[in-house]
Every structure is written in structure tokens, then in C-alpha cells.
Amino acid sequence: MTAPTVYPTASQFASASTHLETPISYVRVDGIRYAVVTSGTSGRVYQVWADASACAEHCIWWTRTKMQCSHMLAVELAALEDELFQSSVEEILGPAPKPRPSYAAVFGVCNARGCDMDRVRGGEQYCDRHLLVDAF
Description:
The chain is 38% helix and 12% strand. It has helices spanning 10-19, 60-65, 70-93, 103-107, 128-134, and strands at residues 25-29, 32-38, 45-49. The chain is elongated and about 75 Å long.
């Protein structure tokens, strides 16, 4: 069951902000991904669905109303903060650089049968071990 869409009150935002004082971690239980939210006031731990559509069964607000609780709001706010941070980093630094090619991709591998060496000399096709033996 998903929570109906309602606008959070100021007190819910205040309560959600206390939950954000500790980092939100994520776990997977029986194939379902949960956000682990620690209460900023009581220290109690709540499991919220990672998409913030449901809260733990011991959450009084969620159990009684089936409406968005402060724990669910905290998960949404943390996700929004991550998105904004990532977009600002990409805006400032540009997209992530492409991975550098490996040594073997640049210089090649040894052509000797059964050799797994990837250190070949500039234009040579054999590693140092096989260069003198197989090249002549």
C-alpha cells in the first residue's frame, strides 16, 4: 500500500530534519531495498522502503494514518539532496572522465604462444622474456 499524496506540515519537515542528522543507509531484505533512518531525538531505527512509499510497522504515524510520516519525508529529502549535489558537481566539474585505457590496450600483449605478459617494447611484439628467444 502506498501513501496518499499530501503536503507535509512544518512540524513534519522539522521532524524529518532531525532524522537527517545521522546518515541514512540502505539495506536489502528479501529482495526489497530499505532505507535505515535513525530518529534524531529517540535514537530509534526505522526501516522505510527505499522509494519512501511505506514505513516500518512500529511507526505510529504510518500505522494509524497510512499517510507520509517524517521518516519517509527524510528519505525523500536525502534523495533530493543527493540529486542536487550530484548535478552541482557535474555542472562545476563537467561529466565524469572516461576511464583510461589499460597498459595492454595501449602497448599490446606478447605474441609468444602461452605468454600472458602485457609488457612489450614500443614496436616489438614480444615481451622481454621472449624477445631474444622467439624474435630471431
